[in-house]
Amino acid sequence: MAGAAPFKHIAVIPGNPVEGAYTSPVPPGSPSYIEVQGPDRVTHYTQSTSTTVGSPTSSTSLTLTMLQGWTITLTVGAGQSIQPGVVYSQQDGVSVSVGNGGQLCYNANGEGSVEVDQLAQDGSGQVTSAAMQFYCFDDHSSTVYGGAVSFNIVPTSPTEGYYIYADNGFVTGFGNDNYLDYLGDLSWETLNDPIVGMAITPDGGGYWLVASDGGVFSYGDANFYGSMGGKHLNDPIVGMATDTGTGGYWLVASDGGVFAFNAPYYGSMGGKHLNQPIVGVAARPGGNGYWFVASDGGIFAFNAPFYGSMGGQHLNQPIVGMTPTPNGNGYWFVASDGGIFAYDALFHGSMGDRPLAAPIIGMASTTDGGGYWEVATDGGIFALGDAQYFGSLGGQGYTGIAGVATNTASVG
Prior knowledge:
Layout: E1 20-22, E2 33-37, E3 43-47, E4 61-65, E5 70-75, E6 86-89, E7 95-100, E8 112-121, E9 127-138, E10 143-151, E11 162-166, E12 171-174, E13 195-200, E14 206-211, E15 216-220, E16 237-242, E17 249-253, E18 258-261, E19 278-283, E20 290-294, E21 299-302, E22 319-324, E23 331-335, E24 340-343, E25 360-365, E26 371-376, E27 381-385, E28 401-405
Parallel strand pairs: 1-15
Antiparallel strand pairs: 2-3, 2-10, 4-5, 5-7, 6-8, 8-9, 9-10, 11-12, 11-28, 13-14, 14-15, 16-17, 17-18, 19-20, 20-21, 22-23, 23-24, 25-26, 26-27
């Protein structure tokens, strides 16, 4: 995704969310799909068993046509071409038209954009797969229209970039094809409790969200194996980690209690004395163990090597999350001031002692372990080591950001 403000992919789950697995509107080889958010937050969408996807009239114009007359047309200026991974804005002379038997959104001031996340064509120019998110402010009705259109998409960059998620279930990607965003999220729904963790499947084809009440929501090829939603918890859930061996997951509570679903139980700190609450969990690569970190930097290892901790030592600010090295032979954890603590892992720098607009809430490692990203509660991203900066939500008025995730590490 280009380094620009994310588009709001409208959630496809009707009514209040019920924990469990959601059927994606865009699995591999899927039919065409479109959705539009308009007046009174009414969502309209079309899903078909056949495709009527049009060809571009030129390299500068592309129209995707769905059943029931839904169309989205993107036209760029002379000298430009339509490419995936680019955000096109009407303010830059780009035409965006969305309609259903006529133009749905009209704007004379150029307040409209399209992000092309995926686009592939055959030798004749026929579109074989596409994924686009759109936004338009209609001058006639003073209404914001936004949504997404997708056809036949698969994850094309599952190990690239990162996803930022918020406590209301909002998910958006940077530096990747944004595939997970097309699976839907919870941001238009009313949650019983806030989202506190996210984990991505190894192939990048799905993800889980977990709420502080233990409710689990799964998308794409992420299987739902159960949750603690609706059950008694002594303390709230603070994060989750996945077992890549079984495809299951662990939930961890602030008292150190562990809840294993289709994953082996290696032990917990539940019912034992803790100086400070648990704030994060990380799985040992391969799924044969896990670590917890407490807000005072204490580390608790279960069937995983103990490499050291900050327990009993002075911290300027509390620890808020951790991530393992990709090979499982070390870990990092991060404090709310951006300070990084590395154990049997290379130190690539930190935001400690630097001014921050908002506190850090989580971190994630690059796939090679040569860098990591820190994320702040306002969505600001800080890339360190060989981690590339692909954009962020910082400075755009966001609050309640809960973490950052990749398909190699996720932190809540």
